[in-house]
Amino acid sequence: MKKCMKCNKQSAYYRPYSGEYLCKKHFIESIERKVARTIARHKMLQETDKIGVGISGGKDSTVLLYILQKIEKRFPQSSLIAITIDEGISGYREEGLKLATQLTSELGIEHFITSFRELYGYSLDEIVQIFKKKSKEQHTACFFCGILRRRSLNQVARNLKVDKLALGHNLDDEAQTVLMNIFRSDIIRMGRTNLNLRQVHDLFVPRIKPLREIPEREIAAYAFFRDLPFHSQTCPYAEGVLRNDIQRILNEMEAKRPGTKHSVLRSGDKIQQLLQIKQEIHLCPICHEPATEKICKFCKIMQNLQNHSTKNI
Ligand SMILES: [Zn+2]
Ligand SMILES: [Zn+2]
User: Fold this and answer.
1) Which ligand is nearest to the CA of 5?
2) pLDDT tens-digit map of 210-221
3) How many domains does the chain have?
4) What domain range includes position 138?
5) Which ligand is nearest to the CA of 283?
6) In terms of CB atoms within 10 Å, which of 91, 160, 250, 312 comes out highest?
7) How far does the centroid of ligand 1 lie from the alpha carbon of residue 49, in Å?
8) Domain presence at residue 4
């Protein structure tokens, strides 16, 4: 058994891309230091920020909330609130919600919970069903979920007067997104991702991703070593989506050539910096939220739902 490179105790974790062997204590420290460094490098937080943390009960957002609380405690003028949006995925979301609530009560963090149904009148399951039966337009559940989640998190964060909205995306998620944009030849979208936190519109709460440089495997190990409660089931709608195929390719590449995921992330950041696309943003005439299309995607979904769900009643 190898020894920890920092203290000579027995190692508990091997990090292939850096060749480090670390004991539990030094592994935990290395993750917390890396998150703090990511926040500092991208100037993600200010000392007086009210930070909203989107949590689902899954390992990423659980680890994010735990580490952010440790960092936030050092700044007396800042504050932290956890936000959970229940999409309404039966047989899946209930457990996550339970664990998220358990976590915030253990950590003593204020927790705001709402749902798609409460905000917009439909659960994700209902939306998927209505579109499947009645609409010619066929989309994956992830398409609806992505648009509604983005909208709802922004609205909730804004109402709670949050300065920064922190999300639990890890290195794997971010590298997958870079490759997905390439596979779909959606390079323009990469130019729009907002790494530099420029204020795109007053009505958008800036989003930060402090875990973007931590591999998923290390987040799982951190949660395990810290004994944090988390939900490990994957979303039932995520089967067969492009993201899963890309994840498999990236994992194979990473196993053969450690460091691949970091390098894909850096490529995405460089493309983003070179493109710096300025979006034309106006207010959607229906919902009065900032949008890039004439009528925003959210309103198109809602119009479609209302047409289809009233027709046959
Ligand atoms: Zn050690
Ligand atoms: Zn709209």
Assistant:
1) 1
2) 999 999 999 999
3) 1
4) 13-311
5) 2
6) 250
7) 34
8) no
